[in-house]
Amino acid sequence: MILAGDIGGTKCNLAVFEERGSSLQLAFKRRYATREFSGLEELIERFFRECVAESGRMPKGNISAAGFGVAGAVVDGRLVANNIPWELTASALAPKLGLYLEQLSLINDLVATAYGLVHLAPEDFLVLNPGTPQFNGNQALIAAGTGLGEAMILWDGHQHRASPSEGGSADFAPRTEREIQLLQFLKKRLTRVSCEEIFSGRGFRKLHEFLDAAVVHPTFDEPEAASASEITQNALAGACPVCVEVLDWWIEAFGAEAGNLALRVLAYGGVYFAGGIVLKILSKLQHSNFCRSFAEKGRLSSVLSKIPISVVLNEDAPLLGAAHQALGTVSATRRERNEILFELHPERARQPQ
């Protein structure tokens, strides 16, 4: 069995897959609220119990490899995250799963999503701009949710390889006079204004308060991220003019930030959008200035207008990517074992395994 997880600041998806040669078949999957658990180990134990109770499968002791996409930077096998309240290290987690360290893949969630893209069907994507894709061109991935995640998908001459980025922690760069005023407004409240402060769930209330502090909604007494859903729902329903203006502004500015990422990566192969916010505002996104603000980069505007833009509709992309990365460690271990076996016993290595 392969254990896989998509570990975010708000929710976690866990799944076990059965190996089918070079492919995987889903055996059991569950979603949990991150902050209901003190750590990933507690969450996995709960998942294992539910898997046995509901499917009859016994994952514990039968896991051949595990992969987790986590919302944050993974530095020397340790999670460094702003939005996940756990201590998490590969060296501590692996033995608790009965695995060697090399059997555990702990990677950034956007990297996991990037590796999951090739395992999705055409209907798992919504094309916003068909553009003129370059098959061997670099690609980029950006996801807005509890935080802002970015990743680069680089062509190495033979294949695309995903590379993590902490672009969400980069400084917010205003483009217009209004955005300059927004930055000045936020600098009075924050030590530093990163892109994530605007282009994540907690950015919606900041924009709303900047536009009109006198208009207050029920969730404004809760943490900032709680207001994102209420503001977007009000905007989509046309129930609050300020909310409508917030959503229009957020979409346009988010498109511009995605265009910045495309410039940095030279993503001629395409830019992919994931994350819960984009999916919730999809109807608005399709009829907005999003693609125009993405491409408005002076003399390079004509270049960016040819970059394909797609939304990832399947929220299991990071789970699939993490699972296949784990499967890759199993395949590598088996190849290494067979090579050693061939050296020691050539006649046995030729026999079917």
Describe this protein's structure.
- The chain has about 350 residues and is α/β, with parallel strands linked by helices.
- It folds into 2 domains: about 1-110 and about 320-350, ATPase, nucleotide binding domain (Nucleotidyltransferase, domain 5); about 120-310, Hexokinase, domain 1 (3-Layer(aba) Sandwich).
- The chain is built from 14 helices and 13 strands.
- The chain has helices at about 40-55, 90-95, 110-115, 175-185, 195-200, 205-210, 225-235, 240-265, 275-280, 280-285, 290-295, 300-305, 315-345, 345-350, and strands at about 1-5, 10-20, 25-35, 65-70, 75, 80, 105-110, 125-130, 140-145, 150-155, 160-165, 270-275, 310.
- Strand 9 and strand 10 form a beta hairpin.
- The radius of gyration is 22 Å and the shape is globular.
- Mean pLDDT is about 90; it is low at about 350-353.
Q: What's the short version?
A:
With 353 residues, the chain is of the alpha/beta class. It has 14 helices and 13 strands.
